[in-house]
Records
---
Amino acid sequence: MISFLVRMRFAPEDREQVAEALRRLTEASRKEPGCVSYIPHELADDPNTILIYEQYRDAEALDAHRASAHFRDYAIGGLYQCMRERNTEDWNALA
């Protein structure tokens, strides 16, 4: 299983556009057969910071996610266009 976190910061004026792109991306990603978990969060004291916790069955499932039309449209064409900062952390499941 592949697990990782994506943390992004956005400007307050982009909040509505970010929320819509994130809603659509989440809905489509959760329908992917190799997606185990896709959970977006906003930081409790800073709603302009978004964290997405993602898990995929294997590398092929992650590749399929990144090659999907919804990733292209809502991540690359939506979220990535608005983000001010982005970092990722890879995690290894222990149990």
Note: The chain has three helices and four strands.
---
Amino acid sequence: MAKIDTILIEGPDCSGKTTLVEQLKNTLHWDAKALHHRQGDQFLRYLKEYTQQQEVIFNRGHYSEAVYGQLWRGGNPFSNDEKELLDQFCRQRMLVIFTCPPLELMTIRYSQRHYKQQIKIEELEQSRQLFCEVLKDIPHITYTSQHWEELEQVIETAQKIVRDSGVQYDLNRHRN
């Protein structure tokens, strides 16, 4: 088992990613980096980010690129081989946390935001379903972001996995 030296937080808009990233950043004393869509070769961009960063929490990654690529840009930007290589890297060196609250909670959060969002409220359900699909075969912790006790539990679990990784620790014991 390789040492887990990065955490990837994935999930649809309004799912609690930013809160989780901030709490993990403060707890682990790691950097955080947002990997929102940018122009260019997406495979090379994510491969470079994933391989060159250590002790960092990524807010979004190639799974978001795939979901929002399908939703807004006409398709997945990765070939099957590219996707498999990025997925394999995540399986081996990253802790993936999937923020996935009930749709009702996402809708409430959407309506409480006082700024224009790229996603439309009617796209929340589809984006949530697409994330569930792209992450179904990736070991991850699921965070429903419904209460502070759950947030504390996810942070504790992440700390333990990071601390114990690389020393004969079974990551899948704590993943959903």
Note: DSSP finds seven helices and five strands in the chain.
